[in-house]
Amino acid sequence: MKKDAPHHRPHGRARELQRSLDLIRRNPLTLFGLFILLMLTLTALLAPLAAPYPQQGKGLSNLDERLEPPSFKHLMGTDDLGRDIFSRVIFGARISLKAAVAVVLIVVGIGVPLGLIAGYAGGKTDDLIMRFADMILAFPSLLLAVAIVASLGPSLFNALIAVSLPWWPWYTRLMRSQVISIKEMPFVESAAAVGASHWRIMFRHILPNCLSPIIVQATVDMGYIILAIAGLGFLGLGTQPPTADWGVMVSDGREFFLNQWWISTFSGGAIFITVLAFNLVGDGIREALDPKIRWRFQKT
Amino acid sequence: MLRFVIRRFIWLGFVLLGLCVITFVLSRVVPGDPAALYVGPRARPEQVEKVRAELGFDKPLYIQFAYYLRDITRGDLGESLRTHRPVVTGILDHLPASLELMISAILIALAAGVPIGVISAKNENTALDHFSRFFAVASTSLPSFWLAMIFQIIFFRLLGILPIGGRLDTVVALMHPIEKITGFYLIDALLTGNWTAFKDAAWHLILPSITLAAYSTGLIVRMTRSTMLEVLREDYITTARSVGISENEIVFVQALRNALAPTLTTAGLCFAYMLIGTFYIEIIFFWPGIGKYITNAILQNDYPIIMGVALLMAVFYVLVNLIVDVLIAVVDPRIRLGKE
Amino acid sequence: MATPPNRQPILSVENLRTYFHTPDGLAKAVDGVSYHVHPGETLGVVGESGCGKSVAALSILRLIPTPPGEIVSGDIRFNNQNLLNLSTRRLRGIRGRRISMIFQEPMTSLNPVFTIGYQLSRVFSLHNRLSKKAARRRALEMLAACDIPSPERIMTSFPHELSGGMRQRAMIAMALGCRPDVLIADEPTTALDVTIQAQIMALMLRLKEQFGMAMILITHDLGIIAGSAQRVVVMYAGEKVEEAPVAGLFHHAAHPYTAALIQSLPVLGRRETFLKEIKGMVPPPHQDIPGCKFADRCHEAVDACRRRRPQLKEIEPGHLVACIRRTDS
Amino acid sequence: MNVQHFIKTAVVCLAVGTMVTLTATPGAAAKLPRDILVFASTDSVTTWDPSASYSTESVYMPNIYEPLIWVSPPGSETSFEPGLAERWKASNDGRMWTFYLRRGVTFHDGSRLTAQVVKDSFERTMRMGKGAAFILDPIDVIKVLDDFTVQFILKEPAPFDRIAASANGAWIISSRGVVKDRDWFEQGREAGCGPYVLESYKPDEEIIFARFEDYWRGWEGPHFSKIVVKIVKEAPVQEQMIESGVADLGNRIPVESSKTFDRKPCCDRLVGPSFMNYAVHLNTQRFPFDNVKIRKAVSYAMPYHDMIDVALGGLGRQAIGPVPFGQFGHDESLFQYAHDMQKAKALMAEAGYPDGIEETVVYTYATENAVEKSFAPLLKEALAEIGIPVEIRPMNWTAQWDWVKGDPEKAQHMAALLWWPSFSDPYETLYSLWHAEEKPYWNFSYYRNPAFDKTILAAYATPAEDEARALYSRAQKMLIDAAPSVFLFDVERPVFKRRELKGYVINPNYPRVPFWYYMYKE
Question: Does the distance separating the beta carbons of D202 and B107 come in below 8 Å?
Answer without folding.
Answer: no
